[in-house]
Amino acid sequence: MRKTDDDAYTIGRLRTDEFPRGECVLIFRQDGKRRRFRLGTDNEAEARRRAPTIYAEAVKPKGSSVGELWQAYRLEKAGKPSVAIMEHQWKALGPHFGRMNAEDITIDDCNAYAAARRAIGRKDGTILTELNRVRTVLNWAHKRRLIRVSPHIERPSAPKSKTEHLTRDQVRALLKACSMPHLQLFVYLAYATAGRAGAILDLTWDRIDFARGKIDLENPDIRVPHKGRAVVPMNRTLRMRLLEAKQGARSDYVVEWGGQKVGSVKRGLAKAAENAGLPHVHPHMLRHSAAVRQAEEGVPMEEIASFLGHSNVNVTRRIYARFSPHHLLKSAAALELDDFDLTEVKRTA
User: Whole-angstrom Cα distance, residue 316 to residue 228?
Assistant: First the structure.
């Protein structure tokens, strides 16, 4: 059985009288059931050529409700990171939009959804992300000619972005408040590598090179487009912690609990922050904290961008340049009005 690039389906073989070597068949899961379609050939290259068209027709929604289109989109995009998030988002979106005909959605429908979410404490940033997902699915359906028009999806304005970060002393306080070894190791890794939470939780020991002092945050098993992950050097503090953890390792994963991969550290970090008397801490805040600290120490933006895995240094500069002691220094100096130097200032003081 051969997996396709996006893992939406697999191509296997079925022995028949017509194809003694085995006829190629398309296999995928839909609505929790295993489905199989014959491809009419025993040539694997030809089977791969025919499979996308047959798969698209097989999963084509029979109706135009938001729920049917949502499911069809998930099936086509299977294997991409966003699809895993969609399952969680649908728990909120499904009851409101699921049975609606996609073309009939109005601004009032969107506003009603936003009001209901705000009523239970959800922030506009979360609501915006959820409605953006509906918009993405309906635009996709329109391009596939599954609906005649893609309706306007009214959304809240994007909240002003904040670069929440911890000082070095606050990171130390957070570490002391981590009661579990795996949580403490996550904090060390997140701060010392500026890695994304997913990259750190995916990290395996074979990508930690103690001889060269390097950590490769790129997961070779991820075959779909994703945000950049860097190869970064390990500092002395992190090396010591990793060597300690390696001695007691019970699995291939660096951050583990009971010999198993850790799925999330959100609750653990929030509890540790509460115990340390810190404001709410989420995993991504440690990445921001690392970048801010580098900027405060005068590390060039190009180097910070490389450390963060940013492909565009302008993204790094827009977020972190203001924390650099050199930021706008020449611009301010150009506006000096006095000609005397500091020695003259001291004499007149």
Answer: 13
